[in-house]
Specification:
Blueprint: H1 11-14, H2 34-43, H3 50-62, E1 66-70, H4 73-84, E2 91-94, H5 100-108, E3 112-114, H6 127-130, E4 138-144, H7 153-163, E5 166-170, E6 178-179, E7 182-183, E8 190-194, E9 207-211, H8 214-224, E10 229-232, E11 236-239, H9 250-260, H10 263-282, E12 287-289, E13 296-298, E14 305-308, H11 317-327, H12 340-343, H13 345-353, H14 375-382, E15 384-386, H15 396-413
Parallel strand pairs: 2-3, 2-4, 4-5, 5-8
Antiparallel strand pairs: 1-9, 6-7, 6-13, 8-9, 10-11, 12-14, 14-15
Helix pairs in contact: 2-9, 3-9, 4-5, 4-8, 10-15, 11-15
Length: 415
């Protein structure tokens, strides 16, 4: 049957053909020991435990007790959802501006995502936008450090503590970013990370969940890696629960281990360069760069971007982005699809038709996933331009060139 749609791409495929005057993420900068670790896998005849080695090293680097390595970031958060063991129809509060991988695992377990609005002028939600959304069915707050901008974690943790809620971090875009001296992924009860090829600590694929909770980690391994199976003496495996085999492959773990050895230096460089770029962009009339909170000590910048003043320019935001790309900024474009409740059309359909778990019960109320429910997020994304994943190859001259291109496009379109 002839396909009627274009499938989404990921990794290097999603960035194939990007050209311009600025560095692009691909080919990625690889850790110097990558081939050595891959050779160990081959020489061992696949008998080495490279995933376990990576888990121990990553947990130590992060300062947490447990790291459960997975094939990707989406499986990492699905493993966490499996471990939580809530009931169908229970709610998890999620930032409305994120990627599908953030919510997939929770939706797959029949939990219902509820999206507060973002704070005005921000890409992230905030305690004051979250608080009105909490109900007796809320089980957790899932914070997304979008583009590497850290959330107000002290405020969110205090709010969660008052309501007895779990706090989860999606740190996929903020690896080794720091909030008030503490690393992303260590600021709540558990966190998910991405090591997909385009991410800050990019491997071929890969991800992990981390936690200091012994029981949660044990449940995650049982449900997410052992497929919910237990061993019965004189019999073998009994599949007591519907689990999964989300295990990180040896070769992926080898590359992740090599990338881990260079990530801190790379993130420190990204922080320095991204702050310079934001300062230069902020000097251009009509342009507002991403706001880096003072609480973000280290900005592990995965994506750079800015908002345009819609009243200042005679072209649309989309056309402004197109002109930037033609002028030499690779991959410049908008990110409307990051408005998750609007982008996940099957959630809209299920809520509208009250399909399980939106049926009453197990759901305790009706849900509306129309874009009008998130005016701050819509206003932000309607004027937001970002370009290809920010990489460690940037130098000060690249920031100056990028700002020059933005200034030229702005001047050309000024009303």
């Amino acid at each position: 049957m002839k396909e009627r749609f274009e499938r989404a791409k990921w990794g290097a495929q999603a960035h194939a053909g990007e050209t311009g005057q600025l560095p692009t993420a691909f080919p990625r900068t690889m850790g110097p020991n990558a081939m050595r670790y891959l050779q160990e896998v081959v020489d061992s005849g696949l008998s080495c435990d490279m995933p376990g080695r990576f888990e121990r090293t990553f947990a130590e680097a992060l300062g947490v007790k447990h790291c459960i390595a997975t094939p990707g970031c989406t499986p990492a958060l699905h493993v966490l959802a499996l471990a939580c063991g809530w009931d169908p129809g229970d709610e998890i509060i999620v930032s409305p501006v994120t990627d599908y991988g953030t919510i997939h695992g929770f939706v797959a377990q029949n939990f219902i995502p509820f999206f507060p609005d973002t704070a005005p002028g921000s890409i992230n939600f905030a305690p004051e936008t979250i608080d009105p959304c909490i109900t007796d069915r809320t089980r957790a707050i899932l914070c997304v450090h979008m583009t590497g901008i850290m959330n107000d974690m002290d405020g969110i943790n205090a709010l969660a503590a008052r309501h007895g809620l779990m706090v989860i971090e999606d740190a996929c875009q903020a690896a080794f970013g720091e909030y008030k001296g503490r690393l992303a992924g260590t600021l709540g009860h558990a966190a998910g990370f991405s090591f997909d090829a385009e991410k800050t600590m990019g491997s071929d694929v890969g991800g992990c969940m981390v936690t200091n909770d012994d029981a949660l980690a044990d449940r995650a391994r049982y449900m997410g890696q052992s497929r919910g199976a237990v061993m019965k003496p004189h019999y073998g495996r009994l599949h007591a629960d519907a689990g999964y085999a989300y295990r990180m492959p040896n070769c992926t773990a080898a590359i992740c281990l090599a990338q881990l050895e260079v990530i801190r230096e790379q993130v420190a460089h990204r922080d320095k360069i991204a702050r310079l770029l934001c300062r230069l962009l902020g000097e251009i009339p009509g342009i507002t760069p991403l706001k880096i909170p003072e609480s973000t000590n280290v900005f592990s910048c995965w994506m750079v971007g800015f908002n345009v003043d819609p009243g200042a320019f005679k072209c649309s935001t989309e056309e402004f982005a197109a002109q930037l790309e033609r002028a030499g900024i690779p991959g410049a474009g908008m990110g409307r699809y990051y408005l998750m409740p609007e982008a996940v059309t099957y959630l809209q359909r299920n809520a509208r038709e009250r399909r399980y778990p939106y049926s009453l019960p197990p759901a305790s109320r009706t849900y509306d996933y129309s874009a009008s429910s998130w005016p701050n997020a819509v206003a932000f994304l309607d004027t937001f331009i970002r370009w290809s994943t920010f990489c460690e190859k940037y130098q000060p001259e690249h920031c100056e060139l990028a700002a020059q291109i933005v200034r030229e496009v702005a001047n050309r379109n000024w009303k």
